[in-house]
Design goal:
The complex is a heterodimer of chains A (524) and B (367). With 524 residues, chain A is of the alpha/beta class. In chain A, 31% of the residues lie in helices and 25% in strands. In chain A, the strands form five sheets. Chain A has a six-stranded mixed beta sheet, sandwiched between helices. In chain A, helix 14 packs parallel to helix 15 (436-451). In chain B, helix 4 (90-111) packs across helix 10 and helix 12 (298-321) runs antiparallel to helix 13. Chain B has helices spanning 13-37, 42-54, 57-82, 90-111, 117-146, 150-170, 204-221, 223-233, 235-240, 245-272, 283-293, 298-321, 327-348, and strands at 2-7, 349-354. In chain B, 70% of the residues lie in helices and 3% in strands. Chain B has a two-stranded antiparallel sheet with strand order 1-2. Chain B is built from 13 helices and two strands. The chains are: A alpha/beta (524), B mainly alpha (367). Chain A binds chain B through residues 17-19, 58, 65, 68-75, 77-78, 81-82, 306, 308, 327-332, 338, 340, 342, 345-352, 356, 359-361, 363-364, 369, 372-374, 376, 403, and chain B through 2, 4, 8-10, 221-224, 226, 229-230, 233-234, 236-237, 239-244, 360-367.
Amino acid sequence: MATNTPAVRMTGITKRFPGVLANDHIDFETQPGEIHALLGENGAGKSTLMNILFGIYRADEGEIFVHGRKVRLNSPRDAIKQGIGMVHQHFMLVEVQTVAENVSLGLAESRFFLNLGQTKGRITELAQRYGLQVDPDTRIWQLSVGEQQRVEILKMLYRGADILIMDEPTAVLTPQETKELFNTLRRMAAEGHTIIFITHKLDEVMAISDRITVLRGGRVVSTVCTSETNKEDLARMMVGRPILFQVERIPVEKGDIVLQVENLQAQNDQRLPALKGVCFTVQQGEILGIAGVAGNGQRELAEVITGLRQAIGGCIRINNMDVTNCAPCRIIEKGVSHVPEDRLGMGLVPNLSVSDNIIMKEYRQPKLSYGPFLNRLSIWRFVDRLIKLFDIATPSQETPVKLLSGGNLQRTILAREISALPNLLVAMHPTRGLDVGATESVHKMLLEQRSKGAAILLISEDLDEILALSDHIAVLYEGEIMGILPAEKAGVEKLGLMMAGALREMPPATSPEQCAEPVEGKVS
Amino acid sequence: MRIRIEKRPIPSRLVSVLTLLLSLLLALIVGGILLKAVKADPIKTYRAMALGAFGSRYSLSETLVKAIPLMLCGLAVSVAFRMLFWNIGAEGQLAMGGIAAAGVALFLPPRAPHLPSWLLLLLIAIVGFMAGALWGLIPALLKAYIRVNEIITTLMLNYIAILLVEYLFYGPWKDPKGYGFPGTAEFPPVAWLPRLPGTRVHLGLLFALLAAIFIWAVLSRTKWGYEIRVIGENPRAATYAGISLVRNILLIMWLSGGLAGLAGMAEVTGIAHRLTKGLTVGYGFTAIIVAWLAKLNPWTVLIVSFLLAGLLVGGDQIQITMGLPASVALILQGAILFFMLGAEVFKQYHITIEWRRRSSIHEETGV
């Protein structure tokens, strides 16, 4: 193999979606054995470019060469034949089947009867070679998210992929799991595999990649060697302006306890225990960060507090009033705002307009209605003011929100939730999938609410975010709080151990009593 | 050959109109082939149908008569569908409305002979509406509180209501002077809905128009309409925003059942003037087609009802003028619906066919 032949070379790639030029004559190349980061904000065109390389989309213009040969990739099957594999952000695994079954799923060699014995042998061999420890006989649903990701990587290796595209692989991992993943990727690169790493996290890029291609607005800004650049330069290339990494967090006087959660218990959708006696309080002007790996009860916690899920034990008090299992609208009336995890599935109605989405909670208020009717003029004024205030980029009030970008979707939700002047703001993954610029503005908004005296419950899997914003950090593991630390005393290492369940600083909840009287003195 | 299907971000207007016309044309062609199969001239038959439905003052008024229950039931079904409540029980709700109306019309006038006609009719209309509404509330309650699938319950309740109608006019309410014909006695004229002079078009048409205005106003101007839209587009978001699904399911089915009940009331007091076989002839089922073709828009429901009613009347006409089975109209109805719903794919997806050899990877040597 000639060392100078790029593993992948894409030239002049252009892809138009109606109204958007997602890729504008992009040239991209990566060498064999290289870890190449594809860096860019959301909507910069990285996923589009990689979906073209994996045969999911087809470029309107441009050519693709794999190991020097020109190829046409009409489907992922074609891409896999060329040795290209992709690990998506959302895993494509069959939960009830075993690792081995998932790996052999859809293979050309497996016609009707599976030779699982042989498959298992190769899986074990590959797993050992690259440090991807996983038992081929385990069923997917029994695996942690990190392990499931390993299965996805194994699936691609098993198919003979020597060019591996990883789409934001660390979003779902603990710091320790991320470290392991990076070790695996380095080993793979050392054996000559090419790895393309899609991300918008600068620290990771600096830690793992050999070279970086930065995209902005569908175009290549630059391709640089990691050793010759730094975070600040990369951020400027990505966003087009300098970025403050540390949002300023001014000290805020803490006030009364707003949210008091006691021995809270709830079930998940499968009716298994998801919260096993959770206790904490959040005061005015305080951000309590809830850290933890996905699926350890975070969603259930947010939903129980906002009335969307039944508590089966314990109690929730807001401003010293028991609101356990109240209807969502009662809880909204108490001044609780909620930025949900699933923006388009729960936080917004994709087909309805920006205006309809912004008034989703406020439409009941007398200022937006007269009697049973909607007051269209005051709604127009209200929405217009919020669009300007929150800088929502939308062609008009009547545009369906599904046409907005991720950052603007989140601004729409925040406009609605913050304009309600919340006593308590429950924010779940408020910046997930957002680019650096949008993340910065969301963080500012949260801190501004804190300064105004709101209590904020910040649930996030992004430790950097939690560390940057929180006053206290609670770690949730398998439905229990492993400990609540002041942010200054919480290091990444310690939090990581707690997130993995290896360290506990809080005694397990044992008190079975339903709802104790509020502790005297703590509540003024 | 490869076929690629890509979703259109915004359905194309031009394509919408074209597919509508094309699907109508295809339906007529398929119908024509069937007509050929029964040795009839398709062009002549279609002409006869069109004339029979819209060709004269009489035929137009007959088409309107059939359109009235379709409009009311179509509106009934479409409001429920707006909220993703699949009410396919309009037929049963219509039947209950008819029964209740007939009950009042038969038994109240003899006991209250001095009741003015307008008051009596108002009372009958309210009772008819409430009967349909209560029948509609049964599946709504089951759905709202114990999550019973409403498709099953609304469907099954149809048969109970239809059989109840038959039981009544064959049994306890049968006209003793009816020479054994199935049906109740004729209502006294005070309980007849006023008609347009010289036709059978009755006041039910006004009910339908008022209902359409009401629904349009509710949907586009009120807080309740806003809630319906949010629930219809994303029930999870509605719950999240504190909108009560239970309350809205009950309300919408009260309205939906009530409108269908009103259709039944208008049929018995406007056309037959008795409870008889002609009440449950499938308007409630055809209404589902109406609602779907009208895309749940109240104004379009009125238009589509009129056109489908024309198809039904025209179908009856060819039975007389051409000696063909009336089921030809039903086949055409089915074909139109089939093609129109099938054409939805073209409105929402962009489909390209590439005529290329079968090799899926086209490799060339690199430059």
